[in-house]
Amino acid sequence: MAPSINNAKCVLVTGATSGIGRALALAIAALPSHPTVIGVGRRKDRLRELKEAGIEAEEFDVNTDRASMKGFVDEMIKKYPEIDMILLAAGIQREVHFKKEVNLDSIATELNINYMSVVAMITFFMPHFLSKAAAGQPCIIAPVTSGLAYIPAPWVVNYSASKAAVHSLCIALRALSKISPPLVESELHDVEGTTDALSKFWVPIDAYTKEAIEGLQRGDDVVSSGFAKVAYEKFEKPKDGMVSEMAKRSATHSKK
């Protein structure tokens, strides 16, 4: 079981200026343990709102190169040495129709934000977390995936693939805490103009946030709800034992 968020002292949240990231940042800041929360995002007006709510606000776009990402992480560790949790919620969603014209630059951007930025941030934070863990402070890495990581949606095929990649990364590393929301009320769908149609099916963001925070407080390895929870229980949970067995075999092989 993963460490509980109740023990977290300082939590950095990417994608904190809208949607799930913003809701979770505000909810974490309101926990009885009162951890320091660092909201990371691009929108200056939304960052000001976070500061007014008592959250540390840092302007940064995760759609960047590795050197810039490392520089940002190093700056955050220096400025907030107590960081012991990162919640990686930054993401975009674009429709892709392969029978029509496909914009490969858009696909690359979506992959960079949804997957590569997660890999880079985990990579650059890992030495800091390993050092804190060695000193007895449990740390949490919580990437936000999606129910579409389990069952892809054909109209957002690249988004589904990017979230499946994050989910696979989480399973393989095993030390990570994972959050996989169902379709949740947010601004994620505004760009494609699908908000009105999806509003008939999505989970209200307040309801989702409550369930997600409760899962993090319990220390659940996988925090999911709604359709995502059903899909995880049916298709993904059975893999856990297989992954553990593969990890044992890998450890045995590496000793030879």
UniProtKB/TrEMBL annotation:
PROSITE patterns: ADH_SHORT
Keyword set includes NADP: yes
SUPFAM superfamilies associated with the record: NAD(P)-binding Rossmann-fold domains
Pfam families referenced in this protein's UniProt entry, alphabetically: adh_short
Entry keywords, A to Z: NADP, Oxidoreductase
One GO term of the biological process aspect: triglyceride catabolic process
Gene Ontology CC entries for this record: endoplasmic reticulum; lipid droplet
GO MF entries: acylglycerone-phosphate reductase (NADP+) activity; triacylglycerol lipase activity
Family to which this protein belongs: Belongs to the short-chain dehydrogenases/reductases (SDR) family.
Protein name stated in the entry: NAD(P)-binding protein
